[in-house]
Amino acid sequence: MTSIGFKRLFQAAVIVLAVATGGTSDAQQTQPAPNPPAQAPAQPLPQASPAPAPAAAAPAPTTISAETKAARAKLDGYKADLDQKEAAIQGRAMADADLQNIRQQIEPIIAEIRTVVDEQTPRLEASKQRLSQLGPKPEKGQPEESADVARDRAEREAAVAELDETQRLGRALLVQAEQLSTQIGDLRRAGFTRALFEQSDGLLSPSLWMNVVQAVPRELRALRIIGEDALDQLRRSTTLGVLLLLGLATGMAVALYVGRRSIAPRLVRRDRAILDPSRRSRLLAALGVLLLGAAPAIAGSWIVWVVFDAVDIVPSRLEQVVKAMLSGLAFIAFVRALIDAILAPDHTSWRLIPVRDASATRIMSFSITLATVMVVGKVIEAFNKAIAAALPITVITRAVFALAAAFVFAELLRRFAARELQDEACLGPYVPQEVDIGGPLRSLGWFIVALIIGSVVGGYIALASFLVDQAVGISIIIALLVLGIAFADEFIGGSLRSQSRIATTLQANTGLRRRSVEQIGILVSGVARLALIIIAILLVLLPWGIESADVTGSLRALFFGFNVGDVTISLSSILIAALLFAGGFTITRIIQRWLDNTFLPATDLDAGLRNSIRTAAGYVGIITAGVVAFTYLGLSLERLTIVAGALSVGIGFGLQSIVNNFISGLILLWERPIRVGDLVVVGDAEGYVRRINVRSTEIQTGDRAMLIVPNSNLISGVVRNRVRNDRVGRVLVTVPVPRASSDPDQVAEIMRQAALAHREVMSEPSPRVLFKKVTENTIDFDLVCFVDDIDAAGRVSSDLFFEIFRGLRKAGIGVPAPAAAPEPEEEPKEKAPKADEEDETLTLLKDKTPA
User: Fold this and answer.
1) Does residue 74 have a pLDDT over 80?
2) Cβ partners under 8 Å of residue 176, min gap 6
3) Read out DSSP for 239-306?
4) Per-residue pLDDT for 618 more than 60?
5) pTM of the predicted model, to two decimals?
């Protein structure tokens, strides 16, 4: 409800009370109704050229023409309004409030013009498409088209021309409106800068004080006149009903402020016995303290102001003084509640920021003092404006209170510095356990204090007052930002990171993993942080002449598109294209998972062919998703060709190996010389192929290590594939026996029988024993057999070794130990006589033969 509505409501109540109590009827005076806003003169519609009546069979052009004429009429009206506003701001210097009012009127015009342009775009495209269906006009020498076709062509050409002209007019008006809005913003910032750096006499200037002394008699006369007017209006407007309303409003305000002291402990409990409360409990307590400490004072001041403004018992120019007083009281209560919520001077364990108790108490007292100084200064400034005080008095008032605020701030910084020096003077090493105001913050504070004092002395009083307001305002915004970020982290990110009811419900209903829910919580918490930081930056920049319209305009242009040459860059299109690609990529992964887990296992295809099908499906899906995304961005094949030509230069220089590996991967998937699951030997490494990627192939070796081999090495290099044709594997067992005491036929039979007795050794081809070689001391035999799966070769080889050694032991045939390498000798020694070969063989047989 507006202030006029409140006035009328309370005036009606005053009339009823006055009649009931027999009061005077002076309060029954009604306020004159506000003048209705002046209507902009209607713009005459443009004269349309006479056109032939459309045929009954083709009513569509008439409908389009009517809609286009209505849109054209809107655009003509907007054009006249914009021309009038442009002439107004260029003709004379305007106040900041007037410029802001004009800019607020331009914003809806921009939105309406953009709507008209967006509505006309599909109509223009449809008209062009219908016109293109008729084909080109017949040239000379060709048969002429019929009268119906010619009439239809003329109507469609007229519709296209009309829609195109309306579209071009709308875009031109949109550019004009945006430029006008930008121009107004520039004018406002220029006026703000000019007023901020306007220089007057400094506080120490004798001429300033002489002017103040000379202006005092005049101000006293003006004060006496204002006082007489106020008393006269007070006598005329004060009735018993007015006094009752004011008393009721004041009583409500006092009750709200006093009642919170008894209600707050019941609603917000900061128990001193709890030494380590949870972060959520501390945040909830801080929010309760802030609301219960500030809301009653703000609500009480608002109620008193509404009643005071409605009864109209003082002159209108003094109402701003009362408003400043009530706003100041609410501001002091808000500052006190904010400091109490964050620092909790009387409750150490419930403090959100770890500072010392003395520091918290000191910040609380100095913040209230600084807020009080600012409020008193604002009230006196409002009073000076009400009595139209002379400029020297206004300057001296603002200078004195800016200097007082700087001194209060300087004393706070000095106390912190003295506390730190006192801590450093203590005996023994000092290890700070709590965070306190550090050197960089104090240095910045002293710089601001020096700048305020220098501005006051140098005559830049407006700059000094602005710095004081900004220092206090930015401090409050930072405190609220810290509180908001803490709430976002705890109640958004914390609720999804822990095993809370919200996280459990979300995990149960969506099927997401716990890690995914935690990542969602971190992401949402980060978005909330970013939003709070952007809001804080806008609030900080607001007094500097940068409005939210400037930022939102830039963000709108970034989101909906801006032109760089012939290319339109649009963040919204990029985001939607990214979402389309992400959707296609997700569908591709779902199809691949279905192929892996459901369809391909039901077929008789080998693992390598399954992997090729799965990978090919992934390539097709990703390429399709990329084409859809690029198509939405409006990238035609010609532009993609240009991009490909640019990439070819890069491929020739730095991307050669990447492209080579990619093409090699496609060859591996198509030709399939190496498949997933194959046992291959690459260089000195041997292992199983686990995955064929776009750039490289993963091979798992016997020691469970993963070998990453570029695809080009597998195509152009020498690779040994043990299972290329089948999975039959050869087992080679080499056994040396002593030459002197061994019968070769007996040894060969023992080895052959060991192979035939193993159930995994293939009977065809049959196992064979080869007499390999004769050395000085041994005879070497090779057992060659085959298994149907090469994965069993190692196990079968081990089993055969065990069985052959058991057979040789039973037959009394020993196996010589491997010869040890001779140790280096420092000095020549006499060699021991070499033993006879038979004695050595007998010794080996005795060692190997069981007792």
Assistant:
1) yes
2) 79, 82, 86
3) -HHHHHHHHHHHHHHHHHHHHHHHHHHHHS---TT-SS--HHHHHHHHHHHHHHHHHHHHHHHHHHHH
4) yes
5) 0.57
